[in-house]
Amino acid sequence: MAAVGIIGLGNMGRGMALSLKRSGYRVLGFDAVEATRAALAEEGIETFSDIGPLCRDAEIVILSLPTAAIVEEVVTGKNGLLAHARPGLLVVDTSTSHPQTTRKLSGLLADAGMALMDAPVSGGPKGAITGTMTMVIGGSDADVARATPVLEAMSAKRVHVGPVGAGHVTKIINNLLCAAQLLTAAEAVRIAREAGVDAERMLEGINAGSGRSGVTLVNFPTWVLNGAFDSGFSMKLMRKDVRLAEQFMGELGLSLPLAADTARIWAESVATIPDGADFNRIVELQLGQATTN
Ligand code: NAD
Question: If you measure from the C-alpha of residue 219 to the centroid of ligand 1, how many angstroms do you get, rounded to a whole number?
């Protein structure tokens, strides 16, 4: 079976690497942090101190990196993918990144005989490690067809939305909605509490009706009402995604009131909720720290 490279072995990249290995792929991994490489090597992933071996031996290289700026650095930087160019290499960016960056990098990689597609993910670290993520994909039909066997080993559902960048546009919209729905669901729980109605029962009712969302169906029961707050997705990353949405809407010349309020509230949360906290903690702005029912 073909070798697959993964750059970025964090919460998501680690799970993807292990899912690919379980499916029989040879997995070649790189992370900027030595301790992360060592931890993955303990789990049976071949890790390297630079991306050279990945570019040489892998058919497909997957990126799972924090920000668009880091993705750009990993492609164009001194020891990046362009410096190690191998014509025919297909790069799949699963990071939540900026569509314009994606389109620009796709052009640069194409000039070097390589290809880029965006396949950002949902499902969190649990989805990554169980190979059950959802992917929204941007790329050419030929590249998507080529990557599909590898993507199938990591995901349960894939939607090919359009050309390069369309996956990142969709992912930004998805996370903006999730960020907004966390705020509206927290307000719903606040109303129920003030009205003397049990929050869990209220959400059960909502989830049988038209007010339900991914947040009321999944986030509140799994991470909020039980006080677990262990989704594996941080405030820092969600604040980044909301900023990305705000920036992207600005570039499109859009001024949308609910999106603007969502962006403001998430930006201001930096004063009270630390970067490393679980992103579901945003509900504490409405519900206080004793969020357990
Ligand atoms: P993470 O911070 O846990 O992992 C990112 C990894 O990239 C880290 O191990 C870091 O050391 C490594 N890294 C940073 N700079 C690097 C570089 N220059 N070269 C190589 N490695 C580098 O983040 P994560 O939670 O795994 O998220 C990764 C991406 O997936 C982000 O874009 C995030 O928004 C997105 N995402 C995360 C989740 C989630 O639930 N965690 C869900 C969906 C999407």
Answer: 21
